[in-house]
Amino acid sequence: MVIRLAAELRFAASDVGRIAVSSALITEMGCLLFFNVMVNWKRENHISTGIGCTVVTALVIVINRYLAVWLNARHRNQKYLKAPELLFILFLLVTSSMIIEIWGYNSVISCFIIGLLFPKEGKTARTLLHKLGYSIYNFVLPVYFGYLGLQCDIITVFKSLSQTTNTAILILLSIGGKLGGTLIVCRYLQIPTSEGIFLGFILNTRGYADLLFIGAAAKQVITFNTEAYNVLLVSIVFNTIISGIIVAFLARGEEKMFANNHTAIEPQQLEDELRILACVYDPRQVSAILSTILAIHGSRQAPSTIYLMHLIELVKKIKSNLLYHEKENTDLSDDEDYGGNDVVEINNALDAFTADTKILVHQRRAVSSFSSLYEDVCNEAEDLQVSIILLPFHKHQRIDGKLESGKEGIRITNQKVLRHAPCSVGVIVERGLSKVPGFAQLVGSEAIQNVATLFFGGPDDREAIAWSLRMSTSPRINLTIIRFLLSSSSQNEHIESGQSEEKEILMSLSGEETVNEIDNTFMVDFYNRYVTSGQIGYVEKFVKDGAQTVESLKEIGDMYSLFIVGKGGRGNSSLTIGMSDWEECPELGTVGDVLASSDFDIHGSVLVIQQHRDAKKGLMHD
User: Fold this and answer.
1) Where are the beta strands (DSSP E) in 456-545?
2) What is the C-alpha separation between 381 and 307, in angstroms, rounded?
3) Looking at residues 82-109, what average pLDDT do you find?
4) Is the pLDDT of residue 258 over 60?
5) How far apart are the first and last CA of the chain?
6) What is the spatial distance between Cα 345 and Cα 130, in angstroms, rounded to a whole number?
7) What is the pTM of this model?
């Protein structure tokens, strides 16, 4: 109940939502365990049967682990398992549950542990989630709750004043007890009172253990008279209704409580969790996306959550005069067939990636027309509270090294996402020499990748460095920061780094623009913390104008497998003057467009970063 309510009110990904879901699961399982012990304590051989239930559960877990691996390897050209394979897995689960129920224990905890330890990667898990989710929520649970309600005589409760009073007192004690206990724990953990009140009410909505207790009474496992049974069931129902209404009211009134506080990477610490929503349109873009994901995981000391969203164009189906049995197999389709073989290829690539790197990627899918596809991306990013969205470039590289344009709808979608995204955005341009291992082959290659981050100044470039800093923790990434400065200012300003060796960083100063104190402070701090220790390389290049900047970029074009640069936010910088005269793709920014141009010969891919404009109000400007 808590999980579904959190999903519907769109706060499941927030810190409060995650605490609520975790607390509800632990509390629910604890209550069920206590219920099992209480019911079976006076029975004979209750210890031996309890051990037997544990052995059965462990046996099913072991079988499922090997079975899932075997089923994932079969029929790689299929999206889901076949019906007999799915039924065999469910047969194991139902059989173990029946054995445990026959021995007198409740099988809910056993099924929960089996599901908790079931392999999450591969098409076996995808099939179970896809096939069971709808039927459980929309058929099984409603029938079960309806069965319990059918045994309750609610009219009898309100006919008697004493029963009505007992019900009201029970509801107040239930809400007050849970709310008070939650507030005490929140005060001990230094959680704000407003969040504690919200947690207290949302934990009141969980009632499966209570209903199970009532169901056991109906089966005469626990002896209750009819009056007590009716009062308890009515109090549970009203308790859930009252708490649900209050939770919905608080969720809409306390928007700041569920707001995403990490809409950009720069303000975060390396120890903070990084949530990424990567998007792909077709299998050709998966390798670059997965390589970027692998690189950002680094040494895996910092937690990260990865979501991959398959964006599928919704096309109008052409009406056919053929009858159903006259159609070919390729003509038979439903909503699940959108994406065609692309879905299978993407699933196989993700399965191989997870098996090789042990990095779990949560899959999402959006099917819509290109005109509204960006809304699905932005809404999903907001619901998941991610810090950055990764998008593939609409052009792909041919064998001769030239970039060929794909669907124009992809470009329009990328532009709209950049304009409306609730967080930072990165656009990946896959480039490189054919048959030469590049950054896109990071997953399948053990070679060290040389990565360069170009810094001209501005919020987007700072965001690019913050992203690069997380990549630098990977043992297979050799990162170099290349800062471009005006050559006329090379002798004008020196800023001490604060080290004992009195190393200095040259800062730019020109007659056209004042020193950007934010960039200077940021770079001095970055230099002192990471460059002086030898963790990251640092190079300064002095140029006079945009023409010299382009020449400098050409000189380093074959030295790195990945170039990371901010989209813009530099104002009228002298470093890039004239570079936008032949701009082809404004969504990449001035420098990103040059690096992604077919006329510009480089051997590395390009990642263009745009910082979320509301991440630091007052500092975001183009």
Assistant:
1) 477-486, 494-496, 504-506, 537-543
2) 10
3) 89
4) yes
5) 45
6) 18
7) 0.82
